[in-house]
Amino acid sequence: MEITLNINHEDYPLNVPPNERLMDTLRRLGFFSVKSGGCEKGECGACAILFDGRPVNSCTMLTAQAEGHQIETVEVVGEHPEQGWKKTEGLHTIQKAFVDTGAIQCGYCTPAMVLVSKALLEKKPSPTETEIREALSGVLCRCTGYLKPVQAVLRAAAILRGEQVPPVDEPIDISEALDFHKDSGGGEPLPSGAGPLTETRVFPKLKVVEAHSPMKTVGHAEPKVDAVKLVQGKPAFTADFDKRDMLVAKVLRSPHAHARIKHIDTSEAKALPGVAAVLTYQDVPRVIYSTAGQSHPIPGPLDTFSLDRKVRFVGDRVALVAAETAEIAEAALQLIKVDYEVLPILLNPQKAMEESAPILHDEPEYVNFADSDPTKNLAAEIKVDIGDVEKGFAEADHIFEETYEVPKVQQAHIEPHVVITYWDSDDRLVIRTSTQVPFHVRRQIAPVLGLPIKRIRVIKPRIGGGFGGKQEVLIEDVAAHLTIATGRPVIYEMTREEEFIGARTRHPMRIRLKTGVKDDGTITANEMYCLSDTGAYGCHALTVTGNTGHKAMALYVGDGPYRKDPNIRFYADVVYTNTVPSGAYRGYGVPQGFWPVERHMETIARELGLDPIAFRLKNALRSGELHPFSTAWSEGREPKPETIYTIGLEECVEQGRMMIGWDEKFGNDQWHSVPGKKHLRKGIGVALVMQGTAIPYLDMGGASIKMNDDGSFNLLVGATDLGTGSDTVLGQMAAETLGVPLEDILVYSSDTDFTPFDKGAYASSTTYISGTAVVKAAEKVAERIRARAALMFGEDGIDVNPAEILLEERKAIAPTGESFNFAEIGLHALHQTDQEQIMGVASHMSPVAPPPFAAQFAEVTVDIDSGMVTVDKLVMAVDSGVIINPVTASGQIEGGMSQSLGYAVSEEMVYDEKGRPRERDLVDYHIFRSDEMPELTTIFVETYEPSHPFGAKAVAEIPMDGVAPAVGNAILDACGVSLTEIPALPERVWRGLKNIKSKPA
Amino acid sequence: MIQEYFRPATVDEAVALLQDDEKLRKPMGGGTSLSRLGLGQVGVVDLQDTGLDQIENRGQRIMAGAMVRLETLMTHPRVHPEIQRAIRIDVSENIRNMASLGGWLASSDGRSIFTTVLLALDTTLTWAPGDERVRMGNWLPLRGQESPGLFITEAEWWMRPHLAFEYVARSPKDRPILIVAVAQWGSGRTRVALGGTGETSIIAMDGPDASGIDVACRDAYHDAEDPWAKALYRREVAPKLALRCLDRIDAIIESEA
Fold first, then answer.
1. pLDDT over 80 (residue A191)
2. pTM for the whole thing?
3. What is the CATH architecture of B162-256?
């Protein structure tokens, strides 16, 4: 139909089909700021536009509905301030505020947030924080926890009102400790109506370490290097890339949890006009592999085929279709006739190893890893004994035993999995994909496609969040098989429903804990048995569950003689069931472990009448002690003893308890009640946690840096920024080493043809591993710059020892004070004398994995009539070593706390008796909106980790670990209900309350 | 698949389009989910230009056209604050800006607080063609089976009753698993609607006073079991929430005295 749309104040005469969605039309016209979250009910809001000045979702509107209305996208809001000779007005104030405050992480939802904020501020120049949160409530963000976007809007509002705002990166003398309560307001709510006070919250509370000298870039709140691009909604993501003649792929998925395909007829689908290919297991090579994106050799069973004659969960692949349009591809799926032999299903992991259990993996090609045994539905088995656990139990005065459970949950990144494949002019297969592990994708997919690695190029553009869900070779083969079959480019983008039924999840686990304790609170032995459910395939089965013990069971070694010789046992069985496969999810098994451990510690402390914090610290690891598991188990190679040198846990506890007001609230009966509301009880809880920083002897990252003739540098890294800001912190470390501002470092990450290898974004390793590689490469470049400068000084008759040349402020400065700027040096090296390309390449692998530590506090209100839990406040004090970028790092903590808040109270994936998933969208699978978030506070307590050039440890995963148990402990504190299972559903808490009431006094 | 799109300028034009027996056509209220229009070959009749977007007082009742956007309703000064709160919890701003009152009533399920609150207020719906007026409580149980007309043109509810609702969800803005909405008229008439489960909200009680409200809730939820909560839970918690609603209404009445 013929219509005219007014987009960004220009008329567009169009011929559109009546069924076309506005989102699709806008993207077809090149307005790539309008993003798809794959949803059907507008629940994510990434596709928001302004419609007559009001934010609406363009995915739930027909294009025809928009005729006669004014449409605005972010493309019209602002643009890059410097475009050569062309004068521009630059970014809008709101966009600048988003950039400055660190409100952008992956950036996928950012254009929508900017538009929503613009609409709000045009209507209401002085919004309250509540009003801002409500305005943002239609745009889901899985990265930020919404705090910084709210701050960005407050800041923009203040600027637009003409108020002065303080700089985001407040000058900090990092040799001095900050007064923690100087600007906190004692935890009081912020004043409404915005104003300069609010912006000071952007910089997290940071207690600095004194072990290093002040730095110019490291330690500062540098804006993200990709922020300007993302805030404009530039076509930076996989699906924003267009290719002529591109086909659209769709996947037929199994309606049965376990079935054999007796017959499959694709003839009608193939005959449908516009269908280019239909592939089944009969068409593609039968190559067994693992989808887990991990280093070679894959530490897990090989149990997956691109397409198989058997399906093992509702949502498993049956057939692939490529067609001219998505509608034709979907229609073709309906025409594929499949005759299934439905098989008995296995849903209960506790029955998986019973003799009568249905066997999921009876394929002869199955390749075992270690103790996996498909005849028992066993994907992995772990047995770790440290010390003498039985002796430890015998020495205890008390034994505490309990069983805990954690649910299956989804990463729920807002950008779905998406990939584009095509043959380039050299007949090499290009895979442009939203992945955390581009190099693993290339290596692992090659045999599946029958191509040598060298004929595959994997490009990782910007990623709209991953959280482990994209540490998987999950979709690339779909598009690649279809490109091979048709010779044409193919795009495959998962819908939100496919994300739930066909992607990956966190492993649900049932965990038995047994702990021996002396009367004085000394832990004498600790034992964990973990039954982990890997779902239908064993991707990450061994390593995720291994980390459950490796981190969660390592924190409490015991006191006195037990410190040196702790008694710890960790046994685990990882079993198959007919549910969507579990896999990597931020935290990688550790959140599952800390739920039971920290709930257990709370129970023990309370039953023994001990102070819960003192009891924990008495038994926790201390600096200079061995990581207890380092002699027994390693995710990567053979275990080697590893001493932990930096543990800021006690300081974290002190800062966190001050911030949340622990001493005034814990044990204070008056505080626990809510005046005028008899049905409400308040509670406070704590959990101490640790994570890892990379995988020792395994993770490797590479970097290369070259100098340009204007004195700028290209930094090429294989490391994968999935929205975390890793490109920025890597750039900061390079800039610091080279003595230039961050803007002179042009960071390009992850293209297997052009960047050095990197294992990818997982295991909290990028700042530590890839960062060290960057510093090593930068040091090599610095050495060449000094040598070049010495040559230039020599040409001027000044004799200088290169080692004495200082690199600072874009200059090489001789001890005498003479200097050359980097532009002069770049020109000299490339064009003038003894020409050379100044560059450095380096890589890094670490023999250690220094853990970050944290104290997580939570405050809740429980409705004792209904069991509904409201989390009011989360405070996390973190020792992540030296913080390279306080704003991006605190964004990681805030976002992580928000994700784990869902793990604590609302998120779970439930299956019916036929294995059909209940959760298929972001309505039923509720992730927190901006207008229901608790108050979030982040505190960094720096330590100086000697194994990193700037003293850094990991920050990305640790916020996932403590929220659930801290909330669980706060619920106990509020109403006496000792939950063993999350999420803390109202009915679950209510049953606990009923049990308490029914017990005799 | 949508094969035709129409945007009539009047209700009569819309009726004529929808009465074409040879075509399967559906009214389009706002745009909260295109998939609700179904997979068949359909035409859609977009009601945005039909003038059904007025809000006006009619004595002790308030009338809202079916095409009033939920955001407009939520910010209207004459709309009860509890209705505004219900909309705010149910729907985020982006969707409120597009979703229409009529579309919401036609498509929301039992887990909508807003729908439950309107049911408690004994809302009357007017249908086209023919301006047939049907009480929401009579229509909702039959929604999907019988329709009093082609589409809703307006909804009308009492402004004067005191109104309170309570709900239970996994988080403050999650879809509730239990909703209790109580409307109480000056005469003492007390009407209780329940939600949080099923295809539609239900009426638990409509009596001359509030006596027996707890029993009514318990009975109405007797079989209210679904994958989200047990019936026992709903049966035992709903009465407490209903009594809490009454307490809140009493407090309001007291403050007004």
1. no
2. 0.96
3. 2-Layer Sandwich (3.30)
